[in-house]
Amino acid sequence: MAILGSNKFSQGSIPIKFMGRYFILEKSATDVSLSVAFKSEGKLYFEIRNNEPVENPYSIVSKTPVGIVTVVDRKTDRFMYKLRPESNTSIIFGKLDGGEIDIKVSDKEIDFGNGNTMSSSQFKGRIIGIELFENGAIGIGVTITQDDIDLLERHGIRI
Question: Which pTM was predicted?
Answer without folding.
Answer: 0.79
